[in-house]
Amino acid sequence: MGKSLWIDLTRRKAIVKPTGDELIGKFLGGIGFCIKILYDMTCPETDPLGPDNVIIFASGPVSGTLWPASGRLQVAAKSPLTGLIGYSNSGGRFGPFIKYSGFDFIVLKGRSARPVYIVVYDGKAEIYEATDLWGLDTWSVEDEIKSKHGDVEVACIGPAGENLVRYSCIMTSKFRAAARTGLGSVLGSKKVKAVAVGGSRGVEVANPERFFELVDKAEQLIKESPFTKTYSRYGTPLLVEPMSHIGRLPTRNHQTGVFPLAEKIGCEALERFKVASRSCFSCSFHCKQVLRLDGVTGDHPEYETLCSLGSRVYVGDLESIIRWNWLCDKLGLDTISTGASIAWAMECYEKGIITEEDTGGLKLKWGDKNVVDELIRMIAYRRGFGDLLSLGVKRASKIIGRGSSTYAMEVKGLEIPAQDGRAQKSMGLAHATASRGADHLTHCTFLDEIGFEDAVRERFGEEYLPEMADRFSPKFKGLMARENEDMTIAASCMVMCVTGGWLFPPLFWWRELAEVYSSVTGIEMDVKKLKLAADRIAVMRRAYLIKHGVSRADDRLPERFLREPAPEGACKGQVVELNEMLDEYYMQRGWDVKTGLIPRRKLEMVGLSYVAEDLERIGKLPR
Amino acid sequence: MRYIQVEPSICVQCLRCCLSCSYKMEGFFSPAHSRVQVMNSKKGFGIPLLCIQCPKPPCVEVCPTGALELTEGVVRLDESKCKFCKLCVDACPIGCIRILDGRVIKCELCLDVDIPPCVKHCPTGALKIAELSHDERNAMLFSLSKMISE
Predict the structure, then answer these.
(1) Distance from A299 to chain B by nearest Cα, in Å?
(2) Can you list the positions of beta strands (E) in A71-201?
(3) Closest in A64, A280, A286 to B29, CB measured
(4) Which domains does chain A have, with CATH numbers?
(5) What does pTM read for this prediction?
(6) ipTM > 0.95?
(7) What residues contact residue A506 under an 8 Å CB cut-off, 6+ apart?
């Protein structure tokens, strides 16, 4: 039986509890645990930056094993950026090392009076003073803690998290981020600079023969996949040029999806800095490229960062982007929201909405490297105009007014990542409906990106072709979004990387996941039961949002995507047919099409009657 | 004689060698229990470290009880003779003899299987099986010691 660690920072007390059969049976692990705990322990009145918020670091049943790409960490808390459910997932090694430390997950609640860090090692937790670490960047914190405590993995915040920047992140293994929804500021509000985990508790598997057979098959499939070679060589930066080619690389705050300088910041351009490849824990893909610049050796900027600090702010200088990526990592900033906030301000400046009076004299011209560089630091330390940007574009545009919200590229308060629904319709739907706000990784609707027809045929059926694999067609995108969202949830329960062969490249699917789960846990799981668990978790996540007032009206997109036809590129003239896709998505989910609320029978079907009672009490069941 | 050859420049530090090693030797996954350890080099790649079976093993030379012996090209540990003096731990130039849970642990090449699990599950070929002469093993020792001291 697994154990979980609950730390009350106010009382400086740690309690060890059994993880429990109910939690394991109904919510599997990882994201499932996180959502259940957040639903039970936080409510609309919970201040995300107050002591009542909880933050969870979770592993899953497959964490710590030899399954390829099973080394993810799942973090969650109520989000200070969106005021809704916040969740983020990170690579590196921290997730499995929670297991080796003796626990399935760690929950922090309350608030410490002074800065502290926590070390969890071989079943024990110690809280240490962190006054000396407060103010340090994330790389220095990791070095300091490792030099004192040896063989541990560190998750920590930088100055941005301490300063409660609404989109500050949690960094692990120096370069991997639980980036989105501002979870760094939750740690900052609790005065926790870092959590370190380590130890030598072994992870067993119930049926080793079956497990190793599955691993061998998976390794073979990975080796043979036509995507592995390029993905291993380049990682996500390989997307930059093709995405610009199809008009999906957000440029100048989403004014267009074509970036004329894409080649300068693409994967081939990155090669000249490359010194090695790196992998997250237990991953055969090793999609991280190690670069050397200015005497620093560190990981490459991901596709998302090449967009947010590149095309989105119209910078085509790769060296600058590499430096800013590391700067954001060290300061503890989500590069997506950072770049998106700067891009919003630049467009407002272009349109004359924001002037030098607002910025303290800064001229926010597209592509001005000095401005971007200065703003990143100003945001992290909340200096001058940076203080406004540190709130995220939704809050900032409300404060500025003057029609600036038209250019706020966000949904539910989370800045839109590096896709454009006009160039890939399913991404429009994903951005609109994701629980954490605009997101590509809640639904992972990758099948129409380059048109995975074979995967569509195999996973859904011939009758969904050609539309489902066609990125311009809104048809069947609700079905794909629902199915891929469920798979993403299931993989994030384990906790596996969604791009470890599940959602990309399309190698494994439900049957394999059920088999891996069964072989590791000894709990026989079939596809039907696994899908039901994923559905239950999706329903509970939605119920959390509904309790916070979310309905269909909030599953929206900025007007730009609905009314401004894509100006150029392969997607020229396209807009997002959101309503049509939303109808199909709700229908697929079994939610009320008119309101986006969840009917009682659906809640009962997934075994969440008590959630139905909660929603009934506040009048949030559809009539 | 079949040895394990280490090629650090292509090691991606996934720890799949450590995981599979710990499972074979202990019956559970725990990188701490692995006979191969992976170090991060300043150059960005990993350095997989495992006993390279030195032709003139310093660990055998310092062992006062004869628990460590070089037989048929492999440095073998007889746990029943080990008195935990840890002299071997200090003697190994690349730190490949370790004490864990009150035991001395080291790689003995998994000669009971065709392909050692660390080699089998390595995704890049940073660990591979090879026939290695005395000189080649000495050269590997030299280059690994140099790398870890950099």
Answers:
(1) 9
(2) 73-78, 85-90, 105-109, 116-121, 124-129, 153-156, 170-172, 176-178, 192-198
(3) A64
(4) 3-198 (3.60.9.10), 234-408 (1.10.569.10), 415-617 (1.10.599.10)
(5) 0.98
(6) yes
(7) A446, A447, A452, A454, A455, A459
